[in-house]
């Protein structure tokens, strides 16, 4: 069966992790990767050295790691199949958006490229996964959007929820209950900075919360 790349599942997971943690092209520290992947720092160091030898990352023990051009290509392919699988599981199999991440983590390494492209066609070539993350196209291109954390919104500002950046099932359930899902229109009706209290207008509802309660929700400001 032809998979997304000849690299091992572990190598693909590392490259994808560097992609996620290194938004904006910043270097990712070994400690960050260890925490994100749930592995030891020595294991991370050994893998980064191997990936560096293969030309997939640029790694310096004290300065961290970034993807090389070749590593970015592999990472984007894995991200594409992961997000397409999540979309398929939600739309065709009826799984909740809180359930699909772990399933996609497994399936992304075992589906053939032909199957992934068939899923893309069946879904109508979606541009976003269920959490609002943009899906790279078949060429590895992915659009960028001017997003900011919801918690940074100022009193009176309006926005649209675009992405939810968390895999925690409990938080995803809570966001869904509140209506903090991609496409939802919100208004920061009022906020008390010192008390860290926000009054959010979400549709017809007003929700009172602190910044921790909306951590991971990213919005695009509107007029």
What's the CATH C level of the largest domain?
Answer: Mainly Alpha
Report the radius of gyration as a whole number of Å. 19 Å
Runs in which pLDDT lies below 50 for 5 or more consecutive residues are none
Q: What fold name stands as the CATH topology of the largest domain?
A: Arc Repressor Mutant, subunit A
Count all strands and give the number: 8
The succession of helices and strands, N to C, reads: HHHEEHHHEEHEEEE
Q: Which structural class do the helices and strands define?
A: alpha+beta
Name the CATH superfamily assignment of the largest domain: Winged helix-like DNA-binding domain superfamily/Winged helix DNA-binding domain
Q: Which labels suit this protein?
A:
single chain, 223 residues, SH3 type barrels, two-stranded antiparallel sheet, 8 strands, globular
Structure description:
The chain is an alpha+beta fold. It has two domains: 1-142, Arc Repressor Mutant, subunit A (Orthogonal Bundle); 148-222, Roll (SH3 type barrels). It has seven helices and eight strands; from the N terminus they run H-H-H-E-E-H-H-H-E-E-H-E-E-E-E. The protein has helices at residues 9-21, 30-37, 41-53, 69-91, 100-107, 113-122, 169-178, and strands at residues 57-60, 64-67, 148-149, 158-164, 185-192, 197-202, 205-209, 217-222. Strands 3-8-4-5-6-7 form a six-stranded antiparallel sheet, with no helix packed on it. Strand 6 (197-202) and strand 7 form a beta hairpin. 32% of the residues are buried. The model has no long low-confidence stretch (mean pLDDT 93).
């Amino acid at each position: 069966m032809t998979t997304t790349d000849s690299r091992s599942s572990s190598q693909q997971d590392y490259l994808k992790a560097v992609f996620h943690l290194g938004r904006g092209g910043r270097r990712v520290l070994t400690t960050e990767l260890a925490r994100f992947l749930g592995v030891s720092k020595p294991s991370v160091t050994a893998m980064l050295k191997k990936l560096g030898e293969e030309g997939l990352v640029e790694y310096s023990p004290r300065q961290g790691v970034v993807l090389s051009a070749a590593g970015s290509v592999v990472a984007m392919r894995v991200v594409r199949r992961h997000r397409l699988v999540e979309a398929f599981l939600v739309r065709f199999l009826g799984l909740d958006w809180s359930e699909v991440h772990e399933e996609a983590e497994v399936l992304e390494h075992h589906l053939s490229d032909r199957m992934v492209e068939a899923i893309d066609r069946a879904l109508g070539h979606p541009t976003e996964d269920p959490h609002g993350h943009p899906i790279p196209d078949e060429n590895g291109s992915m659009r960028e959007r001017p997003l900011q954390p919801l918690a940074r919104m100022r009193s009176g500002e309006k926005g649209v929820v675009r992405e939810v950046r968390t895999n925690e099932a409990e938080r995803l359930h809570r966001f869904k209950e509140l209506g903090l899902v991609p496409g939802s229109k919100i208004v920061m009706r009022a906020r008390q900075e010192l008390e860290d209290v926000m009054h959010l207008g979400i549709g017809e509802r007003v929700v009172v919360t602190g910044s921790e309660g909306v951590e991971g929700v990213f919005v695009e400001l509107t007029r």
